[in-house]
Amino acid sequence: MQLIKNLKWRYATKKYDNSKKVSEKHIDIIKEAIRLSPSSYGLQPYKIKNIKNAKLREDLKPLSWGQNQITDASHLFLFCNSIEVTDKDVDDFIKLKSSINKIPVEKLSSYGDFIKTKLSKKSEIEMFHWTAKQTYIALSNAINACAELEIDCTPIEGFEPEEYNFKLELNKEGLNACVLLAVGYRHNEDTAQQATKVRKGLNKIFEEI
Ligand SMILES: Cc1cc2nc3c(=O)[nH]c(=O)nc-3n(C[C@H](O)[C@H](O)[C@H](O)COP(=O)(O)O)c2cc1C
């Protein structure tokens, strides 16, 4: 199966060849894989920032445990989860669904109310974790899209989210810095590419009950 081959091919790239840039055509495909990602109720409670400013990437490096991928990869995506999902967000989603699926808004209003009721029961911290979980599904699809395109990438949690939030004023947008994805082409001196994958055996992660 191609997906399994891709998963064996990919690895968390440690050293990028900073002379190689990913084409915008390929970036668009990665973005589309993110856009098509499933999310709970379909709310997509996240935003992805494509950090293009080289100086900003330099400034973010010390906030990211000094990791070289922050500056050396061709592209750097910051996946931000929404701090909260408001009734207005649900209304906007219902309107979008109404126009795309050609269903009158009135017919969807009880579904919208159901979502609002369910979300209102979440505490602030539950909401925060819930939107972050949705964000990781999008991240995962981006990683798989990269692998299919034979583009290298690194998911990165090794950074200070609070410092990112402050520097990029993310809280003003109702966002939190959740996880990064560096995207580019491996350096031929990156020794990590030769490492055998370390994974638990199937019997350690699956159980029949
Ligand atoms: C959410 C997440 C965060 C990660 N953060 C980092 C990171 O900050 N720096 C890094 O070099 N690798 C990071 N990794 C890569 C993992 O260490 C790597 O995926 C794991 O060791 C398995 O190796 P492989 O991806 O090369 O198969 C992260 C992976 C995930 C999924």
Record the SSE blueprint:
Elements: H1 2-9, H2 24-35, E1 46-50, H3 54-60, H4 69-72, E2 75-82, H5 87-101, H6 105-120, H7 124-148, E3 152-156, H8 161-167, E4 175-184, H9 202-205
Antiparallel strand pairs: 1-2, 2-4, 3-4
In short:
With 209 residues, the protein is an alpha+beta fold.
Radius of gyration from the alpha-carbon trace, in angstroms: 19 Å
What small molecules does this complex bind? flavin mononucleotide
CATH topology (fold) name of one domain: NADH Oxidase
SSE order, one letter for each helix or strand: HHEHHEHHHEHEH
Q: What does this molecule look like?
A:
It is globular, with a radius of gyration of 19 Å. Helices cover 47% and strands 13% of the residues. The longest helix is centred in the middle third of the chain and has 25 residues, at 124-148. A four-stranded antiparallel sheet has the order 1-2-4-3, sandwiched between helices. The chain has a domain at 21-84 and 125-189: NADH Oxidase, CATH 3.40.109.10. The model has no long low-confidence stretch (mean pLDDT 98). The chain has helices at residues 2-9, 24-35, 54-60, 69-72, 87-101, 105-120, 124-148, 161-167, 202-205, and strands spanning 46-50, 75-82, 152-156, 175-184. It has nine helices and four strands, in the order H-H-E-H-H-E-H-H-H-E-H-E-H. Helix 2 (24-35) crosses helix 7 (124-148) and helix 5 (87-101) runs antiparallel to helix 6. It starts with a helix and ends with a helix. With 209 residues, it is α+β, with helices and mostly antiparallel strands. It binds flavin mononucleotide (FMN). Residues 11-12, 14, 67, 154-158, 179, 197 line the site of flavin mononucleotide.
